[in-house]
Specification:
Layout lengths: L1 H6 L2 H14 L4 E7 H9 L2 H4 L4 E8 L7 H11 L5 E4 L1 H5 L7 H6 L3 E4 L3 H10 L5 E5 L6 H14 L4 E5 L4 H11 L6 E4 L1 H7 L6 H6 L3 E3 L4 H17 L4 E3 L11 H10 E8 L3 E10 L8 H4 L15 H6 L30 H8 L8
Parallel strand pairs: 1-2, 1-7, 3-4, 3-5, 5-6, 7-8, 8-9
Antiparallel strand pairs: 10-11
Helix pairs in contact: 2-13, 3-17, 9-14
Length: 366
């Protein structure tokens, strides 16, 4: 009951909505970076409750969605190396690369296994000492520390058959890239709760300081998001950009120092290829030379062939916030969760999957 009272209190929701409606006098476009926020916003009908001055846009906060086709193709080629066991989280199996998915490769004989954590991948390596086991490292700062810990554990145990293909990405540089591109004007950012639990609320200070854009770090309950929107509206209306942390029950200013330490010990910052954004400097994590024996990118030479983008798929535009999912010509017609053309329709955090489930009929202009 206390949980419901604190995070799903209808009376408090009405109070917050009244505050937002009273304060919001100008068009305000906000981007929720995290795919989890997109799903919560649509699930609880928050878009309909907010005033017409508020325009919510999804951002590149779905790690499966932002994985470039070239990286997917490399993962598929790696899975087809004789003897390799490729382990991955479930969403990645169905994401289409240039011509097929890991699920297709599995159907053709590749040993692709879904795992729920890096601990599962380590156990598979222990159980199959004669076979190379590769973990497909996809995710943001939330999952990178667990992958780093797995590499340290493999080193401690002498699991020489374990390695990681690191496709990890960092969120603040992606936000910077969106603002620098200028394709979509943003007046505020709803900061990702899980990521910021790791990196800390202070990590977003560059947005108000350099871009004049306020940030409100939010959790995933309806009241969390409404509190974030209310704070952002206040800051926009008053012209005082800052970082507001409305998820203080999980997020500290400096983040999780232990997680950051283990991540920094194993990974170093590198450029990364993002779907929709291209190659973004200093936005990826590659395995440090000291752990090169656990780097699948160095351990296996594969030729994934030429990269091909799917004609008509506008997943990249959705990730940049320049269009809403229903504005893609494939949405709900050619591209559905049962037969996805792009990763935004596959992932549990994908914006297209969220719109298909909760707002299938929505249309609208940019």
């Amino acid at each position: 009951m206390k949980y419901i009272d604190e995070f799903r209190n209808p009376a408090l929701a009405r109070t917050l909505l009244a505050r937002i409606k009273a304060r919001s006098t100008r068009p305000t476009r906000l981007m929720e970076f995290c795919g989890g926020h997109t799903h919560a916003i649509l699930r609880y009908g928050l878009r309909e409750l907010l005033p017409s001055t508020i325009d919510l846009r999804s951002g590149p906060g779905c790690p499966v969605c932002v994985t470039a086709n070239a990286d997917l193709d490399r993962a598929i080629a790696l899975a087809e190396v004789p003897g390799v066991i490729l382990t991955t989280f479930g969403d990645m199996i169905r994401v289409p690369g240039s011509s097929r998915s890991l699920q297709d490769a599995k159907a053709e004989g590749a040993d692709v296994r879904m795992v729920y954590s890096t601990l599962d991948a380590l156990q598979i390596a222990r159980d199959n000492p004669q076979r190379p086991v590769v973990f497909l490292g996809v995710g943001f700062e939330t999952t990178a520390p667990t992958v780093a810990a797995a590499i340290l554990q493999a080193q401690a145990e002498g699991l020489e058959n374990f390695s990681v293909l690191s496709l990890h990405k960092l969120t603040p540089p992606a936000t910077r890239a969106i603002l620098d591109a200028g394709d979509v004007a943003l007046q505020g950012i709803i900061g990702p709760g899980h990521v910021t639990t790791i990196i800390g609320a202070d990590a977003w200070g560059f947005l108000p300081a350099e871009y004049g854009v306020p940030v409100a770090v939010a959790g995933f309950e309806p009241l969390d998001i409404l509190r974030a929107v209310a704070d952002l509206v206040d800051m926009v209306e008053e012209g005082r950009p800052a970082v507001s942390n409305v998820y203080a029950r999980s997020v500290a200013p400096q983040g999780n120092l232990a997680a950051l330490e283990v991540m920094d010990r194993v990974f170093e910052v590198s450029a990364a290829d993002w779907r929709g954004l291209g190659v973004v400097p200093a936005s990826g994590l590659r395995i440090r030379p000291a752990f090169a024996s656990f780097d699948a990118a160095l351990r296996f030479e594969v030729d994934p062939g030429p990269t091909r983008e799917h004609k008509g798929c506008r997943c990249g535009d959705v990730l940049r916030g320049t269009i809403l999912p229903p504005q893609c010509p494939l949405f709900g017609r050619v591209c559905t969760p049962a037969r996805p053309i792009g990763p935004c329709m596959v992932s549990a955090e994908g914006a297209c999957a969220a719109y298909y489930r909760f707002r299938k009929a929505e249309t609208g202009a940019v």
